[in-house]
Amino acid sequence: MKKIELPAEDYRKLSDFISDWLDDKHDLQIGQFEAEFFLDELVKKMAPALYNKGLDDALAVAQSNMLTLEELLDLEKIVD
After folding, report:
1. 52-79 pLDDT per residue, tens
2. CA distance linking residue 10 with residue 39, whole number of Å
3. Which one of 61, 64, 68, 79 has the lowest number of neighbouring Cβ atoms within 10 Å?
4. What's the sign of the alpha-carbon dihedral 24, 25, 26, 29?
C-alpha cells in the first residue's frame, strides 16, 4: 500500500494533539519529533484497516445505489 501523506496542517494538528493528550492524560511530556514519530507509526499501522473500512463503506453505498437504480428501471413501462 502506498504511504499515506497527510496535509501539513492536519499532520501538525495531529502531532500537537498527541503531545497535548499525553501531557494532559498521562503527565508525559514529549517533543515535536517524538510526537511526529508516534503519529507516523500510528498511521502506518492503522492506515490499512481504515482504508479497507472506507472501501467497504463505499462499496455498500454503491451497491445500495445500484439497487435503487434497478428498482427504478423495473418500474419503467414498456411503450408500444
Report:
1. 999 999 999 998 888 788 788 888 777 8
2. 11
3. 79
4. negative
